Amino acid sequence: MNILVTTDKNYLPHAHVMLVSLLENNKETPIHLFYIHCDLDDGSIATFRNAFLGTNLTVSFIQIDRKELPALDTKGYITPETYLKIFSPNLLPRTVERILYLDPDIVVRKGLGELYKTDLGECLLGAVEEYHLRTYGNTVLKIPEQYKYFNCGVILIHVEEFRRNKISGKLLSFLQKTNTPLTHNEQDVFNAVLYDKCLYLHPKWNVHTRILQEYKYISIANSQEMREAGSDPAIVHFTSVPKPWDYCCTNPFQKEYRYYLNKTPYREAKPKGRSYPNMIRKLLLKTIIYRIPRRIKDLFPLRFRAQVMDMLLRFDGEVT
Fold it and tell me: CA dist 126 to 31, 140, 154, 209, 233, Å?
């Protein structure tokens, strides 16, 4: 199984956690990790390699000089590495025909063999719909209404077809020519160019924070797939802030992140932002989103619940 990770040095500890969870749930599967980066030093790479000695993981580090990357829009926590997945198919060995890209802010909870063997047919990639951004994709990115918007935190990539169709060049061309503000960075680029080349996967393969919050709070009763994904994710993706390494994170799977963190060289890391105001805030958010029984939440109209959820998401995204 080929796995792709692209991060800067700040996300190395979290990539480490993700990989520990991947290995623990895929013990019988040989895994080849391709780690594309710009700024990892020799010490960090040595620590990483030593931590996985004797496991079923083979690691290939591919370093790219930032000067070789085109001038791209970076702001806030967005770095040039954010866009590395655009170029990654051309950076991988020619022998790699298929690869599974995983964001570092992920915890793997199940075996990924079924996902990795998915028949993509004529599609170039497989991903999970980010359904609450479908309107955004249609209106802002001008994606035709019959197509969906997908999340790029977990992508099964047909590398051979990416190369043959020169997709990296098309993605870069869109990125450099568009005048549209890209709220979701490289994810918008992938959607704007490949909206009709994506095979949509079962949501259990990328249960991002919004799915969990809406599953628990709004009660998505009209989707069996959503119920399956929300109740027992195969992959948990911590898409919103606070992240699982922040104290104020309300994601119910934060404990699993901490469990795997304790199996890494970064086990002494403490949650960021712990304070008395944040303790009260976290308790309030967890109670409203996750602990009020669904039968009580269902007494309120769906539209009202959705509005309250949007308010909570804005509140939940401010870490102090």
Answer: 19, 22, 8, 19, 17
CA–CA dist 12, 49 (Å, integer): 12
Instruction: Please report, for the chain, the start and end positions of each structural domain, with discontinuous segments joined by +.
Output: 2-201, 207-316
**CB count in 10 Å sphere of residue 28:** 7
CATH code for the domain defined by 2-201:
3.90.550.10
Global model pTM greater than 0.90: no
Q: What is the DSSP letter of 287?
A: I
The tokens of 197 are what?
A: 């080349």
Does residue 116 carry a pLDDT above 80? yes
Distance CA 194, CA 121 (A): 15
Helices (H) and strands (E) in the chain, counts: 14, 10
DSSP assignment of 66-124 equals GGGSPP----TT--GGGGHHHHHHHHS-TT--EEEEE-SSEEE-S--HHHHT---TT-S
The answer to whether 249 touches 259, Cβ cutoff 8 Å, is no
Provide DSSP, 164-177: HTTHHHHHHHHHHH
How buried is 164 (Cβ within 10 angstroms: 0-12 exposed, 13-18 middle, 19+ buried)? exposed
Q: 242: closest CA among 233, 231, 251?
A: 251
* β-sheet bridge partners, residue 207: 236
Give the mean model confidence (pLDDT) for residues 104-120.
97
Residues with Cβ within 8 Å of residue 38, at least 6 apart in sequence: 8, 63, 64, 65, 66, 69, 80, 81, 84
Q: And the tokens for 25?
A: 């749930």
How many angstroms separate the CA atoms of 113 and 3, rounded? Answer: 12
Residue-wise DSSP of 216-278? HHT--TT-HHHHHHHHS-SEEE--SSSPTTBTT---TTHHHHHHHHTTSTTTTPPPBT--HHH
> At 318, phi and psi to the nearest 5?
-110, 100
Q: Which residues contact 96 (CB under 8 A, 6 or more apart)?
A: 2, 34, 159
Tokens 């391709």 map to which residue?
Answer: 34
Q: Does residue 318 surpass a pLDDT of 50?
A: no
- CB-count burial class (<10 Å; 0-12, 13-18, 19+) for 236: buried
